[in-house]
Design a protein that fits this description.
Largest sheet: 8 strands, mixed
Number of helices: 8
Order of helices and strands: HHEEHEHEHEHEEHEH
Strand content: 5-15%
Structural class: alpha/beta
Oligomer: single chain
Radius of gyration: 19 Å
Length: 279
């Protein structure tokens, strides 16, 4: 019994140190943000944060103990990148491996520190809701026409990683209007040879609880697969490019699942009843 208590104490201390390290590294993003603000002021607004964001995100993935495995090469052209969505960690993975700008609900801009960091990193904030789709498409088209690739999660929510949900297609019209391709991507988290159910951020989960749960695992891997880009033209149909993008992401997901050493078991029930959801 005493040996078990010592082991449990050691595990808790180790977890506390890992959580503390991640939080400290996350807060260090404020220093990167201040550096960017200073550089932008000195350059008359011409300095881009993409390089700094890329380096910070790579370091964040390392602090999280996350090994990134990449398959295929995404297009180097300006594009609308689309992917299935599992966790807030997806953002760090894409920032560490690609040069894209992110979309977020406008409410995130009001969150302490997180909203400020997101804005400095070049996040495009959008107002959700069916009646606002036209203005959002206009904003996205302008972003793409300014040669800024953007990342979208067309499922509209996170999943537990076992399946890919139906894609919502309205905002794909921005890619057609801007004349840029869609770049389908598939993401999957693995631990101990099977699907990592500690990675998904679903239900009413909160940031700190999810972080502690994830860091209890002995690291893990994330698999990121790039599929052939889907060209668009003024004659393209949003329904058709949505179908093609969804088919590519689903096919990649099936391949990554099949490559796991152990088939995934049933997912745990989503967490309910907590506040402070970060998505």
């Amino acid at each position: 019994m005493q040996s078990q208590n010592k082991h449990s104490l050691f595990q808790n201390i180790r977890l506390g140190l890992r959580v503390g390290a991640v939080i400290i590294y996350f807060l260090s993003g404020a220093l990167f943000a201040l550096y960017f603000i200073a550089r932008r002021a000195l350059s008359g607004g011409r300095y881009s944060p993409s390089g700094v964001t890329h380096l910070w995100a790579k370091g964040f993935c390392k602090v999280m103990g996350l090994r990134i495995h990449r398959y295929g090469e995404p297009t180097t052209a300006t594009c609308m990148m689309v992917s299935n969505h599992v966790s807030w960690i997806d953002i760090a993975v894409f920032a560490a491996t690609t040069k894209v700008h992110f979309l977020s609900k406008i409410e995130v801009r009001q969150w302490p520190l997180v909203g400020w960091l997101a804005e400095v990193a070049g996040t495009l904030f959008i107002k959700r809701g069916g009646n606002n789709a036209g203005s959002v498409i206009d904003d996205l088209r302008g972003f793409l026409q300014a040669d800024k690739s953007i990342l979208m999660f067309p499922e509209g929510t996170t999943t537990q990683g076992l399946t890919v949900r139906r894609f919502h297609s309205k905002l794909f019209a921005a890619a057609i209007q801007a004349g840029v391709p869609l770049q389908p991507m598939t993401i999957l988290y693995e631990c101990d040879g099977t699907l990592n159910y500690a990675a998904p951020f679903v239900g009413d989960d909160d940031m700190l609880s999810h972080l502690k749960r994830y860091l209890r695992n002995p690291g893990g891997s994330v698999h990121l697969m790039a599929h052939p880009a889907i060209p668009t033209s003024p004659d393209s149909s949003t329904a058709e490019i949505t179908r093609l993008a969804s088919a590519a992401v689903n096919a990649g997901h099936a391949r990554l699942l099949a490559a796991l050493e152990k088939p995934p078991g049933p997912p745990p029930p989503p967490i309910k009843g907590k506040l402070g959801r970060f998505q």
